[in-house]
Design goal:
Blueprint (H helix, E strand, L loop, with lengths): L2 H19 L4 E9 L6 H12 L8 E7 L2 E4 L5 E3 L15 E6 L3 E8 L1
Parallel strand pairs: 1-2
Antiparallel strand pairs: 1-6, 3-4, 3-5
């Protein structure tokens, strides 16, 4: 379960920022998780709850925005949603999706503290 190591890293980054800004308690953290990361949001929530227990992060909300995979056609440059279980051909011209525009994110977006 790589979600545990991801949560550990997130907590480390949040803790550094809390110390830097002199805040004592985390209320909410918002992250983006792209579909291509193969990270399970529910597993992240579970691991976050376990890791935050008994700390100044206990009870904080882990708000996860799931980001779909958007590809861009190498020929006509049209952007379109990709489904990892179907053909990645452009619906406009039939070309291949050569670039990912989104779906690979694993980012901390914001945090609310008190």
């Amino acid at each position: 379960m790589h979600e545990l190591s991801i949560v550990t890293s997130i907590i480390g980054i949040v803790r550094e920022n809390m110390a830097l800004h002199g805040v004592g308690r985390l209320k909410k953290i918002k992250i983006q998780v792209g579909e291509m990361t193969a990270v399970e949001p529910e597993a992240l929530r579970f691991c976050f709850g376990i890791c935050a227990e008994g700390t100044d992060m206990e009870g904080a909300i882990l708000d996860i925005e799931e980001v779909p995979v958007i590809g861009q056609c190498v020929h006509c440059k049209k952007e379109f949603t990709l489904d990892r279980y179907s053909d990645s051909r452009c619906p406009e011209c039939g070309g291949e999706a050569g670039n990912y525009v989104s779906g690979t994110e694993l980012d901390i977006i914001s945090m609310e503290v008190e």
